[in-house]
Design brief:
The chain is mostly beta strands and 232 residues long. It has no helices and 20 strands. It folds into 2 domains: 12-125, Sandwich (Jelly Rolls), CATH 2.60.120; 134-230, Sandwich (Jelly Rolls), CATH 2.60.120.10. Strands 2, 3, 4, 5, 6, 7, 8, 9 and 10 form a 9-stranded antiparallel β-sheet that branches. It has a 7-stranded antiparallel β-sheet with strand order 1-18-15-20-13-12-11, with no helix packed on it. Strands 14-19-16-17 form a 4-stranded antiparallel β-sheet, with no helix packed on it.
Length: 232
């Protein structure tokens, strides 16, 4: 299957306890790694933590899509940012702050290590916040209405970016020149892999398509997905 895989966000069977989690209590937590690039600079997975409070300083760039729970993030400059389901949290390399988790929080994270420290501003793009949608170009011969996306984060080196993408139902082939991990917000899609297997993807599922993945995409309903991409 060229490494293509599908992971359900509610499947806890392969999650492992966090080792020595920080915090005032400290509370329990779990995580599951679902992809790591060959060079180790790009990792994605699930992370869950029970209510607690602790401070952090990021040694990498992280963008997370919040699946469940509620928390406040007190930034190093005194702001209090609120996050909940459907929000995107950006904590760049060098950013600092304090977590205040009020309800057990589950997130899909994408981490990129090795980039220099630049913009360290912690930010939240809320589920209902206005965003700048960019209309994409269609491949040659594709007469469907074009897709759209907005960017949550793009590294200065161009190797790591994340955002949200949407498009009407469509069928087409794909062959990726990058790693992509996508969490489906809306839509029902069948992925036919190069060896003929069918993966059925729906809301809450995470589709892992490493570089070189190819197959056929059949979207039966309008699709919206949070994506994280790494270029080797």
């Amino acid at each position: 299957m060229d490494g293509i895989s599908l992971v359900g966000s509610t499947d806890r069977t392969m999650w492992t306890p966090l080792v020595d989690p920080p915090g005032q209590i400290p509370s329990g937590g779990r995580e599951r790694s679902i992809f790591t690039s060959a060079d180790g600079s790009f990792t994605c997975g699930f992370w869950e933590r029970e209510p607690d409070t602790w401070s952090f300083e990021r040694p990498y760039d992280e963008v997370a899509y919040v699946l469940e729970g509620a928390a406040g993030i007190e930034t190093d400059d005194g702001r209090m940012l609120q996050v909940g389901p459907g929000d995107v949290l950006v904590t760049p390399n060098g950013s600092k702050g304090t977590w205040h988790i009020r309800q057990t929080l589950t997130k899909l994270y994408a981490i990129y290590s090795g980039a220099p420290v630049g913009d360290t501003d912690v930010r939240v793009i809320g589920r209902d916040d206005p965003v700048d949608w960019v209309t994409l170009d269609n491949p040659p011969g594709d007469t469907n209405p074009p897709g759209q996306e907005w960017y949550a984060w793009r590294n200065v080196d161009g190797r790591f970016s994340t955002g949200v993408w949407q498009r009407v139902p469509e069928t087409g082939t794909f062959e990726l020149e990058y790693h992509e991990i996508a969490c489906f917000i809306d839509g029902d899609v069948d992925i036919e892999t190069s060896d003929g297997q069918i993966l059925r993807v729906g809301p809450g599922d995470v589709l892992v398509t490493p570089i070189g993945s190819k197959g056929v995409w059949r979207a039966h309903t309008p699709v919206k997905k949070f994506w994280a991409v790494h270029h080797e």
